[in-house]
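Internal QA ticket QA-208
Title: Verify multi-chain structure generation after dependency bump
Assignee: T.L.

Test input:
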Amino acid sequence: MNIIDNLLRDGDNLYDQWNLTDIPFAESAEKLDRLAQVFTGREAELSQVVNLLRSRDAKSILVYGWIGIGKTAFVRLLLEGLKRNLGDRVLTARIKLEANTDLSTAALIALAREMPNDEWAQYQLNRMGLRSSLPLRSRKTTAGGKLIFEGTVEESTVAPEAPQFPTLSFEDLLDRALQKHERVIIAIDDLDKQDPARARQLLLNAQGLLKGRAWFLLTGHPRGITHDYLISDRGLFDLSLKLEPLDPDTSYAMLVK
Ligand SMILES: Nc1ncnc2c1ncn2[C@@H]1O[C@H](COP(=O)(O)OP(=O)(O)O)[C@@H](O)[C@H]1O
Ligand SMILES: [Mg+2]
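Actual output:
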């Protein structure tokens, strides 16, 4: 049992909202991965996110702070904790934002990779020249009973093709995911690797996506935007969390672990 499991367990209200009758906790320490064992502090920030999760409506959260401050660790701990405590009720996905990728395409790739048994998801990945998690031989893809894709696929022969309408492709895939899961939570890591003007433009272009039916957790230090309306109360995000350096006592506890 660690901090994120405790927070999720204590949120009894949270489980009412999620209609949970029986909660599959990982009680034994052996089931915890290394991150959950070494993760230290950040309780106030974690509980702010857990509080937001009480909402039924999807929310968008920005986690920002300097490189090395612990954004990736924070997001991984949250996603892994949610998965461990809520199982298939939630679909969690995480992706690092690559240069020249818009947020919808990143979200589409992240989600498709978590849907290995969904032929359409795998077809989307394959079109983009990305490895499908299904065996490549004798795959069939049908849409409305009509066969749209059949046979052996050699990845090298499939021309990488960015989706023409990434937001629409993402919405279609999200529909499919929401048939099987109550919530879809997508983390897009490393907005800070883009230059500030580009990060800002990416966020502006993603307004519809961030206000949609999936939950989003974005991380970065998008310098140009951190103090303006994009992250204010009426801005793009329902919550923006700044990660500060850990205090000396917490740092010491972390080193001990
Ligand atoms: N709260 C924490 N407890 C223990 N280790 C942490 C914590 N936050 C970060 N770390 C460790 O510090 C290093 C840098 O963190 P990381 O999440 O990669 O930073 P960022 O994504 O902000 O650049 C990683 O090795 C990570 O495991
Ligand atoms: Mg990181």
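Spot checks passed. The mean pLDDT is 79.
Status: verified.
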